[in-house]
Amino acid sequence: MSGRGLKVFTGSANLALAQDVADYLDIPVGEMTLTHFADGEVGISIEEPVRGEDVFVLQPTSPPVNEHLMELLVIIDAMRRASAARITAVIPYFGYGRQDRKTRPREPISSKLVANLLTTAGTSRILTVDLHAGQIWGFFDIPLDHLPSRMLLADDVRRRYGDNLVIVSPDIGGTQRAREFAAFLGAPIAIIDKRRDRPNQVREIVHVIGKVYRRRAVIVDDIADTGGTLTVGAQALLNRGVVEVAACVTHALLSGPAIDRIAASPLREVVVTNTVPLAPEKALEKIRVISVAPLLGEAIRRIHEDRSVSTLFEFLPQPV
Predict the structure, then answer these.
(1) If one looks up domain 150-290 in CATH, what number appears?
(2) Which of 89, 94, 174, 266 is least surrounded by Cβ atoms within 10 Å, i.e. has the fewest?
């Protein structure tokens, strides 16, 4: 935006990523005081002028989701009341993204509710990475820029794993994601058909669709939560004759038993991004982190300069 300064602020959800993005842009992280009252309420004080500025607030709504979401809403409200010219919410991981539709009567569509809250708070624009479901894009009545992480993860797979690959979707719903990932590698895909009794609980692998025998399998998913999908899927693939199994996941929530499951699994490694910070106690040797800071930083620069964000992906190999 011509004549307007660029400022990046952050809540408490991912301080390291915010600093890396600011370093990429060669600017400091904005000064802001974040406090929590005794009853758990969030307090915000912006310590520098933002009037007429182009403000980007980086805050994934990762666990604890509700606390980080409330921080983001309060920061945006403070920026709006301080007369920022434009407020872009940079949400590397969009919490509540898995509640994107009604599956039974009397259920909410929580993704839409969060979209409404962000808009009402004063958000001008959204920048996010790998939404769980494409329809969430339509929940917003403000511009949304969606960055796919496959440009980073697929390039890493190309360099480290060579050929004879098969890209595996861990469920039917992730087929499109796996197909796009595989297209850039010129690899075939396979799909795991699984049964889930309830959220975070995989009951059984029913079938593996596709040719996987004597290939190197890479499971591609957007979220690793309790790790059940990855570990059960990896064992099912080995049972069907793959040479080895790895996984590429964008958002490493790694809740509950996830770390123990991955450690005990036959997975060679799990490659994740830093959209969600990886706590020290979760830093297994099997888990390797790739930074999305350059991707976010370049997207922020282009949004600020009113340039195309989609051209970021033009250097990628064309689908075969």
Answers:
(1) 3.40.50.2020
(2) 266
